[in-house]
Amino acid sequence: xxxxxxxxxxxxxxxxxxxxxxxxxxxxxxxxxxxxxxxxxxxxxxxxxxxxxxxxxxxxxxxxxxxxxxxxxxxxxxxxxxxxxxxxxxxxxxxxxxxxxxxxxxxxxxxxxxxxxxxxxxxxxxxxxxxxxxxxxxxxxxxxxxxxxxxxxxxxxxxxxxxxxxxxxxxxxxxxxxxxxxxxxxxxxxxxxxxxxxxxxxxxxxxxxxxxxxxxxxxxxxxxxxxxxxxxxxxxxxxxxxxxxxxxxxxxxxxxxxxxxxxxxxxxxxxxxxxxxxxxxxxxxxxxxxxxxxxxxxxxxxxxxxxxxxxxxxxxxxxxxxxxxxxxxxxxxxxxxxxxxxxxxxxxxxxxxxxxxxxxxxxxxxxxxxxxxxxxxxxxxx
Length: 382
Ligand SMILES: Cc1cc2nc3c(=O)[nH]c(=O)nc-3n(C[C@H](O)[C@H](O)[C@H](O)COP(=O)(O)OP(=O)(O)OC[C@H]3O[C@@H](n4cnc5c(N)ncnc54)[C@H](O)[C@@H]3O)c2cc1C
Hints:
With about 375 residues, the chain is of the alpha+beta class. The mean pLDDT is about 90. It is built from twelve helices and eight strands.
C-alpha cells in the first residue's frame, strides 16, 4: 500500500474543495450543523447543489463513462466522500443514490432500468431510499417479512419498513420483499417509485434530526415485473453488494475529526491543555480517528486493486464506530457543560450524529461477530 497521494489525486481534492468553497453559503458551517442531512433546509439546498455538482463532473466521477461518470477509481470516490462528509454532507441523502443504489443498478440493472435511472442519478435529480429494515428484521435482515405476491403480470406488496432514511424525500425505494420461502433465498429486490398508491410514509421524530427516520407502510402496492432488480428470489447477492458499499460508504471520521478539531480549539482557548488528562484523552481521540481513516484506506486500496470484498470491511466499519465513540466520550468528559446547555451547535451535532454510528449500516456487534469469525477464527455464538 502506497501512503502518498499522487499529484493528480491532490489536484482532485483541491478541485472538490474549491467547488465547495464557491458553492456553499457563507453560513454553511452553522447551517449544516444546525440542520441534519434529511432536514427540509439541507434537502432544498441539495436539490439545487447536486445538479451543479453533476455538471462539474463531481457527483459520480467513480461511475463508468457510459453511465454518466468519468471512470475514476475508488480513491477519487473516497476523496470526494471525505470532502463532502467533512462539510456535513451537502448532498443530503443523495449520497445513498450515488454510492450504493446507482452501483447496484450498474451491476444488476436491465438495460431498460439503466436507461430509466442512471442518467438521472448522474444528473443529481433522483433520490433513493433503502427499504431494508423492518420492526423484526434489523441485524437479522434475512428474517424480513414484507411480502410480494406474484399476480401474473406483476407483484402486490404488503408489509412495513422502519428506520428508513430519506423516505419522505426519495423518488424511489430499493425495497427488499419476500417472494419465496424463509431465509436469504426467497428475497427479491424491487425498485419502487415512492409515489405508488398504497405507500404511506411517517416521520419518526428523534435525536437524529428533523427527518432522519421513517416508517413506511406498503398496503397492496402494485409493481410490474420490470421493477425487480436482479433475479426473483435471489436478491441476497444484490443486498450483499449494497451492504458492502454502505458499510464503507460514509467516511464518518471526516466529520468527527472536524468536531474534534472544534473541541480542541475550545480547550486551547480555555487553557485546558495544561491538564495531562485532557492531553492524553485528546491524543487517544485523534489516534482513533486516524486508525479509522487508515482501515478505510486499506479497503479502498483493495477495491482499486480489484480484490473481492472481505472482512476488512467489518474491521474498517468497526474502527469508524470506535472513533466516533472515543471522540464523543472525550467531548462528554471534558466539554460536557456545552452539551448540557446546548450552547455549541458543532459539539452538539458531533455528539448527536455519533450516537447512531454503532447502529446505522449494520450494528457494531454484528461487525465484531464477523471479525471474530473471519479474522480471529473464533466460534460465533448466535
Ligand atoms: C442513522 C440510521 C439510519 C438508518 N437508515 C436505514 C435505512 O435507510 N434503511 C434501512 O433499512 N434501515 C436503516 N437503519 C436501520 C439499521 O440498519 C438497523 O437499526 C440496524 O441494522 C440494527 O437493527 P435493529 O435496529 O433492528 O436492532 P437489532 O438487530 O434488534 O439489534 C439490537 C441490539 O442487539 C444486538 N444484536 C443483534 N443481533 C446480534 C447478534 N447476532 N450478536 C450480537 N449482538 C446482536 C445489536 O448489535 C443491537 O445492539 C438506520 C439506522 C440508523 C441508526
